[in-house]
Design brief:
The complex is a heterodimer. By secondary structure, chain A is an alpha/beta fold. Chain A is built from eleven helices and twelve strands. In chain A, strand 2 and strand 3 form a beta hairpin. The longest helix of chain A is centred in the middle third of the chain and has 16 residues, at about 180-195. In chain B, helix 1 packs parallel to helix 2. Helices cover about 30% and strands about 25% of the residues of chain B. Chain B is of the alpha/beta class. Classes of the chains: A alpha/beta, B alpha/beta. Chain B: This is Methionine biosynthesis protein MetW. Chain B: It comes from Sphingopyxis flava. Chain B: InterPro entries: Methionine_synth_MetW, SAM-dependent_MTases_sf. Chain A: Its main location: cytoplasm.
Chain lengths: ~375, ~200
C-alpha cells in the first residue's frame, strides 16, 4: 500500500532551514508539498491558506492523484465557488507528518536514506503551522487574506491566529475545537492501537517491504469514521438493512449494510494513507490544547489576535467537536475584544458536514472572505 | 433600503467611529447602516438563519441569547449597547438592562408601548389581550412575555439609578411629545446611561 502511495509525484519545496519542534527536537530541513489555485495578485494581498483535516491533503480542488476523484473541498474551492479562485490565490499544504509529499515518517533519513519510520519526531499542530509559515516565507507572502480549515484544519487556523496574528486578516474555523477532549483522545488511541497491534506494522519499519499494517489501519479508519457521522445519519442511510442478502447468515460476514460500508471505507483508506502518518497526526491532534501554553487561559492565546476577524461554525449533529467547543472559543475571543462571528448550523451529516452540501456554510465562507477585503 | 423608524433614530444617534453591540440584531439591517457611518458594529442574534444572513453580508455576529450570553462580554467592551424591540421578549428585562450597561456605558433600548391608546381601548372594550400592528400575535404564542409601558420603563430606570439621556417616542413613524408619550407613543426609544 504505502509503496504505491509513495510513487506519486507531488509538487513540493524543500526548505533548508531547521524547524525547531515543540517536542524539543528539530528537523534540519523541511519538505512541504503543496498545491495552489488561482493567481497571486501583484501586491500579494489575495492569498488564502486552506488547512486540511487529519486524513486530508493538499489536493483541495481538481482531481486527486491517488484516487482520481475530485479534491476534498472541490465544492468550496474553485472559480465562482465560495473560496473563489478567480479572486483568491488559494494555497493548501500537506501537513508536516503526513504522507502526501511533506516531511513525515516515510521521509528518508538524511544520512542513510532509509525511511525514518518511528524515528521521525512527534510533531504538534503548532509545528505544522510553523512549517506552513516557512512555506509562505518561501513564497514571499508576508500576510494572508485568510486562513480557513475544518476539523484539524480549524485547529491549525486557531494556532495560526494565536502564533502569527499579524500575518492574517481573517480566520475561519469550521467544526473544530481549541483542544482535544478525553473522548477525542480515546477514539484516536483505539485507532493507534489497532495499527500497532497489526503484526505487519513491524514497529513502523514496513516501508519497502511486501506487507504493511493495512488491516490495523483499516480498523483505525472504521472506528474514526463512525465519529464523523451522526447517529441519525447512520440510521437514515443504513438502518438495520442487510447487505445483499435476504436473511441473517448467523455468521460473521458483513450481514448489515453498515458493516459492509465500514469495511469498504477502511480498506479504501489504506490505498491513500500511510499508517505511520496516521499515528503521528492523531498524536499531534491529541496534544493540541491551545490554552495550555497560555496559563490554561484560552483568552490569553488570542491576546495578540484582537485585529483578526474570526468566523466559527459548528454543526448541531457533530458530536466529535460539539458546539460547546466552538462557544468556548467565541467566549475567549469576546473577552479579548476580537471581532468574532459564530453560528451553529443545522445539518444531518455529523462532523463530516463541513465537507458536504450545507448551503448556509457556503454563504458564510463567501461572506467572511468578502468582509475582510473591506 | 429604508430602515425601520426606531432603527433610523438609533443609527442616526450613534456617533461615527464608536463601537456598538446590537443585541438581537436580526439579519444585520441596523449594523449595515451603522457600518456605513464608520461604527464598529457587532451583533448578537438568536436565530441561526438571521445569523447566517448577517455573516454572509460580512458582519460580525454571534449566535446567542440575550437572556444568558451577554455575560460573555467583558465590562465596557463597547461604547453603546443596542436592544431594539427585544426587551419585552426577555426572561428578566431588569437584568438584561443591567448587562447592557455593564457591557457599555450607554445603551439604546426600544420597545412597543403597551399603554398606547389603541392597546388600552382594545383591552377595555374587548376584555381580551390586544392584537395590534406592533403586537400582532395572540397572547398564547407571542414572544412578548414581559409587556412594558413607557411609564413602567421610566420607573424601572429611576429605581435602578439609571439616567435617561434622551428619549424618542413614535406614533407610526412620526414623533410624539414626551408628555403625551404614555398614551400616544406606539413605540419608545430610550438612550440610557449609568447613573
Amino acid at each position: 500500500m504505502a509503496s504505491l502511495l509513495h510513487q506519486i509525484q507531488h509538487h513540493s519545496v524543500t526548505i533548508s532551514a531547521p524547524l525547531a519542534l515543540d517536542g524539543g527536537q528539530s528537523l534540519p530541513s523541511v519538505t512541504i508539498a503543496y498545491q495552489s489555485y488561482g493567481a497571486l495578485a501583484s501586491d500579494k494581498s489575495n492569498a488564502v491558506l486552506v488547512c486540511h483535516a487529519l486524513t486530508g491533503d493538499q489536493y483541495v480542488a481538481g482531481n486527486h492523484p491517488a484516487t482520481g476523484k475530485p479534491g476534498w473541498w472541490a465544492r468550496m474551492v474553485g472559480p465562482g465557488k465560495p473560496i473563489d479562485t478567480d479572486r483568491f490565490f488559494v494555497i493548501c499544504a500537506n501537513v508536516l507528518g503526513s504522507c502526501m509529499g511533506s516531511s513525515g515518517p516515510a521521509s528518508p533519513d538524511a544520512l542513510t536514506g532509509a525511511p525514518l519510520g518511528m524515528t521521525f519526531p512527534v510533531i504538534t499542530i503548532g509545528d505544522m503551522v510553523r512549517a506552513q509559515a516557512m512555506l509562505l516565507d518561501h513564497l514571499g507572502i508576508a500576510r494572508l487574506h485568510a486562513v480557513i480549515g475544518g476539523s484539524m484544519g480549524g485547529m491549525q487556523t486557531l494556532a495560526w491566529a494565536s502564533a502569527y496574528p499579524e500575518r492574517l486578516a481573517s480566520a475561519i474555523v469550521i467544526a473544530s475545537a481549541a483542544r482535544h477532549s478525553a473522548q477525542n483522545i480515546a477514539f484516536h488511541e483505539v485507532g493507534r492501537q489497532a495499527i500497532m497491534a497489526d503484526p505487519d506494522w513491524q514497529d513502523g519499519q514496513y516501508y519497502g517491504g511486501a506487507r504493511g499494517p493495512t488491516k490495523g489501519l483499516a480498523v483505525a479508519r472504521m472506528a474514526a469514521h463512525i465519529t464523523y457521522l451522526s447517529e441519525a445519519g447512520l440510521t437514515e442511510k443504513f438502518g438495520r438493512r442487510l447487505q445483499a442478502r435476504d436473511a441473517k447468515s448467523f455468521g460473521f460476514d458483513a450481514d448489515f449494510q453498515i458493516e459492509s460500508y465500514l469495511r469498504h471505507q477502511g480498506l479504501a483508506f489504506t490505498d491513500r494513507f500511510d499508517a505511520n502518518a496516521y499515528l503521528y497526526i492523531t498524536r499531534a491532534m491529541d496534544y493540541f490544547d491551545l490554552a495550555e501554553a497560555h496559563d490554561g487561559q484560552l483568552a490569553n492565546a488570542f491576546a495578540r489576535a484582537k485585529d483578526v476577524r474570526f468566523t466559527l461554525v459548528s454543526f448541531d449533529t457533530d458530536w466529535l467537536y460539539p458546539t460547546a467547543e466552538s462557544r468556548r472559543i467565541v467566549q475567549a475571543l469576546q473577552s479579548v475584544g476580537a471581532a468574532a462571528s459564530f453560528v451553529e448550523l443545522s445539518a444531518p451529516f455529523g462532523h463530516d458536514s463541513f465537507l458536504l452540501e450545507v448551503p448556509a456554510l457556503d454563504s458564510i465562507v463567501a461572506g467572511s472572505l468578502a468582509a475582510s477585503l473591506a | 433600503m429604508k430602515l425601520r423608524p426606531d432603527l433610523a433614530i438609533i443609527a442616526d444617534a450613534v456617533p461615527a467611529a464608536s463601537r456598538a453591540l446590537d443585541v438581537g440584531c436580526g439579519d444585520g439591517e441596523l449594523m449595515a447602516a451603522l457600518r456605513e457611518k464608520g461604527v464598529d458594529a457587532r451583533g448578537l442574534e438568536i436565530d441561526p438563519a438571521n445569523v447566517t444572513a448577517a455573516i454572509a453580508r460580512g458582519q460580525s455576529v454571534v449566535q446567542g441569547d440575550a437572556n444568558h450570553d451577554l455575560a460573555d462580554y467583558p465590562d465596557n467592551a463597547f461604547d453603546y449597547a443596542i436592544l431594539s424591540q427585544t426587551l419585552q421578549t426577555t426572561e428578566r428585562p431588569d437584568r438584561v438592562v443591567d448587562q447592557l450597561l455593564r457591557i457599555a456605558p450607554r445603551a439604546f433600548v426600544s420597545f412597543p408601548n403597551f399603554a398606547h391608546w389603541r392597546v388600552r381601548l382594545a383591552l377595555l372594550w374587548s376584555g381580551r389581550m390586544p392584537v395590534t400592528r406592533l403586537l400582532p400575535v395572540a397572547w398564547y404564542e407571542t414572544p412578548n412575555i414581559h409587556h412594558v409601558t413607557v411609564s413602567d420603563f421610566r420607573d424601572l430606570v429611576r429605581t435602578r439609578g439609571i439616567a435617561v439621556e434622551r428619549a424618542w417616542y413614535l406614533s407610526g413613524d412620526r414623533p410624539t411629545s414626551d408628555a403625551a408619550a404614555s398614551w400616544r407613543a406606539e413605540h419608545a426609544i430610550f438612550l440610557i446611561s449609568r447613573g
